[in-house]
Amino acid sequence: MHLDIFLYLAKKYPDMAELRVASLNIPDIKTTFYDWYERCHKKIPKQFREGIKISADDLFKDLERLAA
Questions:
Q1: Nearest CA to 63 among 13, 16, 27?
Q2: Residue 6: which of 68, 59, 61, 65 has the closest Cα?
Q3: Percentage of the chain surpassing pLDDT 90?
Q4: I need a surface site. Which of 21, 53, 61, 68 has the fewest CB within 10 A?
Q5: Which residues span the domain enclosing 62?
Q6: Is the Cβ–Cβ distance between 20 and 63 less than 8 Å?
Q7: Domain count, the chain
Q8: pLDDT (tens digit, 9 = 90+) per residue, 34-60?
Q9: CA-to-CA distance for 53 and 59, rounded, in angstroms?
């Protein structure tokens, strides 16, 4: 699932999002991303590395805010 699309739809359809976000294992998704990032960050062009990490942090903050 693409988290950015999910968050967009969650803002548009909050009732649907509440049901769906309850079934997500957010800590597991977060751990999986950061594990992948640690393994592959050297393969990502240097100018994009920090932006990807910042974008992911923002997505996870929004997702956790939605889950609360």
A1: 27
A2: 59
A3: 44
A4: 68
A5: 3-67
A6: no
A7: 1
A8: 999 999 999 999 999 999 999 999 989
A9: 10
Q: Which contacts qualify for 10-16: CB closer than 8 Å, 24 or more apart?
A: 10/66
Distance CA 1, CA 46 (A): 26
**Which CB contacts under 8 angstroms, 24+ apart, belong to 27-36?**
29/3, 29/60, 29/63, 30/60, 33/60
The string of DSSP codes covering 8-37 is HHHHH-HHHHHHHHHH--HHHHHHHHHHHH
Cα 48–chain centre separation: 17
Q: How far is CA 22 from the centre of its chain?
A: 15
| pTM (2 d.p.) | 0.75
d(CA 19, CA 59): 18
